[in-house]
Amino acid sequence: MGSAFCEDCLYHPHKHVGHQSLRVYKSSSRVGLRVKSIRKLMDVSDIQPYTCNSSKLVYINRKGRNDHVNRMNGRKVDKCEVCGHELQCYSSKFCSIECKVQSEIEVEETEKEEVGISISTTRLLRVDPNSFRKRMRKGTPLRSPFF
């Protein structure tokens, strides 16, 4: 059985030399992909690009709800169609790949419901990036009291 992330591994599980891979970058505590590399695989024209070290990145996961800052200041604010995050570019519709995929799945589901086909299973599994660790790795050291 091959790796879940590499389609080539299904055919050659122990030879990774010729496999295509994407380099993941971390910027502003978020994980992203270069626009040049992901453009070959999917249309990212309506996703907000961010600049990091003079290269354009597209974030994979949407921004958390606590990170949302409302900076309206009397101007029209463009927001992500799915999560409502403020966008910097007026031509963008989504803030991340996750929001775009979720929007496309919702469109497909509404089209199938209009035809009369009911969908009972959800295709998108959302994993919260903070759900892996229950507590912080390091905390305040607890010392025994001095009597």
UniProtKB/TrEMBL annotation:
<dbReference type="InterPro" id="IPR006734">
    <property type="entry name" value="PLATZ"/>
</dbReference>
<dbReference type="Pfam" id="PF04640">
    <property type="entry name" value="PLATZ"/>
</dbReference>
<protein>
    <recommendedName>
        <fullName>PLATZ transcription factor family protein</fullName>
    </recommendedName>
</protein>
